[in-house]
Design a protein that fits this description.
By secondary structure, the protein is mostly helical. The chain has a domain of 58 residues. It is 61% helix and 8% strand. It is built from six helices and three strands. A hairpin with a 2-residue loop joins strand 2 and strand 3. The protein is elongated and about 70 Å long.
């Protein structure tokens, strides 16, 4: 488990339980705390909405939530979660996408696409001017 995954799990668990310093350091104890919370509440704590705005989407989204957020198909969303550089976080077999990281990634993609388009236009102009 990476530090980022641990931090996310601690954040989610902290809503439902008090974590001791030992639990925060031990992956085994973190997973036991998660299982205890899930057993007590009767549902997966990782699906809990933590809404940071009025858009109705949680700060940490599941793949189906991300698909709805981006208005794309679920298959494409799952495919994107495997792309190199895509801001998906794996917690065991679960995949989550932090909304702020997704928005930053989208901006980077837009900037890269605009830059590529500008370079293509420049090449076309050089080709046209080179023929005269």
């Amino acid at each position: 488990m990476t530090n980022q995954e641990k931090d996310l799990l601690i954040h989610l668990l902290a809503q439902y339980t008090v974590l001791s310093p030992e639990e925060k350091q031990s992956e085994k104890l973190l997973m036991q705390a998660k299982a205890d919370v899930e057993h007590t509440l009767g549902y997966d704590v990782l699906n809990t909405k933590i809404d940071d705005g009025n858009d109705g989407f949680p700060t940490v989204m599941t793949i189906p939530q991300m698909a709805k957020f981006l208005q794309i198909g679920i298959s494409k969303a799952y495919e994107m979660s495997h792309w190199v550089g895509f801001p998906a976080v794996r917690i065991g077999r679960q995949v989550r996408v932090p909304k702020h990281a997704l928005l930053e990634w989208l901006e980077q993609q837009q900037h890269a696409e605009q830059q590529q388009h500008a370079e293509q236009e420049q090449m076309q102009l050089k080709t046209v001017w080179g023929r005269r």
